[in-house]
């Protein structure tokens, strides 16, 4: 590891020793934070995987019911039955902190209106199943989007922190250590040279 281009003085050595102390402490804190982020990411990723699996299953079931309803009912009647929704869902987005990172949080405000905006006499039970299933899966889709975005943001931050940890561990800390050793060696050499010169002067005086 190449040493820094510095003046080999005691003042410079003290300054670099302080920088090394700060870098070492920062490296530990950053590594601990990254390890905790990874643990949190794994938990969220498992939750995201479970939620995605459930959502895909429920969505497939609801779409299957809808396909069956369309095959048993006139397409115009099905279209008219679902054209005007009986309830409104409003979303509001804000931020929350996860390991110091601002991640999205989505609040759902369900109007609680009529789930089936049509006459039961005009459609089959499959359409009811489809509407009920799609209504339930909507909330899971929103939660899935929130969880996936959080996972992506955590993964990006983990990658950034890993690069910082590696830079401290493999570049800055070794370079500071080597430079401090170099300065100490130079100071020792200067001290020995000064001692030799002093002894020579004493010898000359004594003669």
Number of domains: 1
In the CATH hierarchy, the third-tier topology is known as Helix Hairpins
Number of helices: 3
Oligomer: single chain
Beta-strand content: 5-15%
DSSP strand count: 2
Largest sheet: 2 strands, antiparallel
CATH class: Mainly Alpha
Task: Spell out the blueprint of helices and strands.
Elements: H1 10-72, H2 75-83, E1 89-98, E2 101-110, H3 125-206
Antiparallel strand pairs: 1-2
Helix pairs in contact: 1-3
What does this molecule look like?
With 207 residues, the protein is mostly helical. The protein has a single domain, classed as Orthogonal Bundle (Helix Hairpins). Helix content is 74%, strand content 10%. Strands 1-2 form a two-stranded antiparallel ribbon. Strand 1 (89-98) and strand 2 (101-110) form a beta hairpin. The model has no long low-confidence stretch (mean pLDDT 85). Belongs to the V-ATPase D subunit family.
Structural descriptors:
Helix Hairpins, mainly alpha
Please outline what is shown here.
The chain is mostly helical. The chain has three helices and two strands; from the N terminus they run H-H-E-E-H.
């Amino acid at each position: 590891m190449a040493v820094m281009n510095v003046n080999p003085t005691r003042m410079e050595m003290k300054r670099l020793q302080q920088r090394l102390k700060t870098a070492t402490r920062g490296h530990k804190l950053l590594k601990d934070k990254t390890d905790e982020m990874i643990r949190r990411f794994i938990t969220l990723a498992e939750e995201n995987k479970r939620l995605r699996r459930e959502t895909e299953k429920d969505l497939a079931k609801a779409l299957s019911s809808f396909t069956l309803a369309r095959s048993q009912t006139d397409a115009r009647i099905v279209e008219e039955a679902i054209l005007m929704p009986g309830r409104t869902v409003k979303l509001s987005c804000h931020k929350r902190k996860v390991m110091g990172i601002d991640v999205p949080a989505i609040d759902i405000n369900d109007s609680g209106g009529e789930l089936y905006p049509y006459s039961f006499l005009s459609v089959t039970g499959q359409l009811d199943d489809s509407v009920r299933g799609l209504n339930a899966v909507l909330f899971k889709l929103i939660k899935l989007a929130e969880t996936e975005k959080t996972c992506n943001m955590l993964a990006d931050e983990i990658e950034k922190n890993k690069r910082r940890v590696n830079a401290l561990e493999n570049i800055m800390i070794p370079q500071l250590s080597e430079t401090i050793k170099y300065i100490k060696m130079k100071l020792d050499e200067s001290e020995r040279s000064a001692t030799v010169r002093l002894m020579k002067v004493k010898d000359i005086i004594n003669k």
